Amino acid sequence: MLIEFGKVFVFLLIAIVFVIIALIAAKLIRPARPTHEKMLTYECGENPIGTPWVKFNIRFYVVALIFLIFDVEVVLLIPWALVYKGFGLGGFLVGAIFLFMLGLGMAYEWRKGDLEWVKPKVILPTLKNVQIDIKEDEAA
Question: Which one of 81, 95, 110, 117 has the fewest CB atoms closer than 10 angstroms to its CB?
């Protein structure tokens, strides 16, 4: 068994050496003529304006995390869908409970508003936007 692991180790060692030699050869062969244009950050043909340290809206990350969570859960459903008949009613119920919990999570995120790209602005109550209805008999 040690001989088999030795083959894997030699293969990995040769791969690492090959990559290092390729990187060194590329550094020696390529021309090094940096210009101002080459040193700029590439923005799909757009000229970069301002600092590259821009604060992104947290909504981008929340949407990405929600996508990853639900994507992984859906990928877990594929093997279950292929073999659940072999497990009978118990296998079906496990999958049904999983789907129900997935639906609850989706409903929670939807209700919370994290799936909306543009959230409505919260209007805090002030005296200007609160309408006061005073009846005539109460005013007297």
Answer: 117
